[in-house]
Amino acid sequence: MRMSQMYLPTLKETPADAEVTSHKLMLRAGMIRKLGSGIYTYLPLGYKAISNLEEIIKEELNKKGAQELLLPALQPASLWEESGRLENYGPELMRLEDRHAREFCLGPTHEEVITDLVRDEVRSYKELPLNLYQIQTKYRDEVRPRFGVLRGREFIMKDAYSFDADEKGLNESYQQMYDAYCNIFSRCGLEYRPVLADTGTIGGDDSHEFMVLADAGEDIVVYCEECDYAANLELATADSKVIAQDEEAKELKVVDTPEVSTIEDLVTELDLAAHKMIKAVLYQVDEEPVLALVRGDYEINEVKLGNILDVVNLELAAEEVYQKLDTVKGFTGPVKLEEIKIVADELVMEMSNAVSGANKLDQHYLNVNPGRDFKVTTVADIREVKVGEDCIQCGSQLKQTRGIEVGQVFKLGTKYSKALEATFLDQNGKPQPLVMGCYGIGVSRTIAAAIEQNHDEYGIKWPKALAPYNVELLVLGSGEVMEQAEEFYQQLKEEGIEVLLDDRAERAGVKFNDADLIGAPIRVTIGARSLADGKVEVKLRQTGEEFKVEVEEFLAKIE
Ligand code: ATP
Ligand code: MG
Ligand code: MG
Ligand code: MG
Question: Has the ipTM of the complex gone over 0.95?
Fold first, then answer.
């Protein structure tokens, strides 16, 4: 591309409303322009970087047998009602009406649409596994759109969905995608780390986020240097409270620790009120009441809970938690765990032995076991783990670093296939719900993340694979100098190398500054003085290394 003809509005000054480096540099380098809050245009230079990333993503996903398609961004609200997310997704969902007052939304993600597609088409286990993906514009009405394309309201995402016949198949599909993501981010030249993650509004069981390590990151990653544990702090905090597994659960007993003698203290002490999805569940094991912390709304509703004496939603402030306990059990005054035990015993006595109380008054579940049907931990266990500080695998002290979430993979299981009745016929001809996974990459965000990791005070230092242009020919002069530059330009183009020719009638200073800003990995300066010696000057943007190359050897050296 000739810079004299390119639509490349670079800026000398840093725009005032840009806080983080990638946002500043993307504006200054003429990669993006803002249309409205969280809404950006990708200019030719920016879009080239996006396209490079998309190519890498497609290659790696295609290698794993995934197939590209394109789903509509405009989605009927009725479909979201079917999955239950029309309400659950909350205000982040961009909602609109058509002229007939029918409700729609602009897709923030596509689990509903893809499930709707396959439920009508996939009939037999023979058609599985299946993995479909798209690269598309997503819409999310973020509370705080910021940092340029790192958190937009309209952004580009690659989303993939896998369909399997069973859990084993899902695990394989998940691993394939996990591996593909490692390949993608490695090829992009990014320093990244896959970490255990919470599943948020998408739902499901296991999940990993892919974090690009950078100070501008909004997420905090905790990791252990002694073992392989790494997690989003959000999850590590929740997990360290829910550590007891099935067999252990049966032996758990409430231990009255002197430090925490009331539920209220417990809530304050562990800062539980801040964790919306956690509920304190008081229930019974072997005649003993146990305080369990259960994560996730659906876990409570979907699994059959047993022997539940009470469930306190910790979304409430500590004060309200206390009041709620009060009204449910008729407590007065501060609640000691001992007292809870007594009242709990009484409550159980009132219930028939075979019936378990659920998380709503007058609702009961049958044939369920705590520990088997949900995870539990006791007050004693909670005390032992310093929330988010100790590794839950080996107990060593965790380290923290900041990360930008560039991708996330989820084992969805049957959440959407059950809700939308997407079934297939198994080997015995019996209908079964499809077992799903979903896998996202923030395409536009990844480009910004790459810049966060690769820049200096002068501009971007593109990793080779993402660079919009790999070589910039910086021409200082006209006549013979320009002729030589033109010759290189043609040669490089013939070799299939993306090359930018700075043929503008600008001062040398302007050209050098723009070259640093735009950040092509290889800069070749063609000036009269070195050309008289039959040479041109090469500078590598990543390392700053400079050397001269004979004109005759140019192509060989550049490649
Ligand atoms: P975040 O925690 O940053 O809000 P998310 O967990 O809500 O992200 P996912 O639903 O996992 O996002 O979507 C898949 C990917 O899409 C994310 O890993 C991220 O890279 C990208 N992404 C999500 N929201 C945005 C946004 N507002 N702007 C740009 N990219 C985004
Ligand atoms: Mg989000
Ligand atoms: Mg997230
Ligand atoms: Mg996510």
Answer: yes
